[in-house]
Amino acid sequence: MSSARAARWSRAYGASGWHLALMLASLAVVTYVVLTVGLAALWDPDVWWQSIAVWFVGAVVLHDLVLFPAYALVDRLLRLRLGPSAGRRATPRVPLLNYVRVPTLVAGLTFLLFFPAILSRGGSTYANATGLTQEPFLQRWLLLVLAAYLLSALLYVVARLRHRT
């Protein structure tokens, strides 16, 4: 595809052709999984709130209507406060924004993955399956978040020192 046609495609579609190809491939994989597993495996009428379909729709709605606007707003505020355009100086400086974004992303994703254990939900099931308690999860998660922020702060200091020289 010529670069002019690719540019027209990107303007009309809103992304590159690779985006469309990957989206169609992911839809094909999801269709294959649903057809292989069957719809009955995704919906349990006896305990409907534990069904995969309910959790999937809930996650989409929660993310798209609540979480995405919330972290987009926080990111906008951070960019206004910490971004490269904040407080323009005569000499360029090392922007702080990504040094805040990355550990926050680490904290959010690890909390999302382990929140039942961090909040001590399902302790008896976890104990029956592993023979362990959920006590250390909160402390370990907090230590992980602290380490992520400390490492990010250290990398920021190093970047500032390298930028100065």
TrEMBL record:
Superkingdom classification of source: Bacteria
Transmembrane spans: 20-42, 48-74, 95-118, 138-159
Protein keywords: Membrane, Transmembrane, Transmembrane helix
Name of the protein: Uncharacterized protein
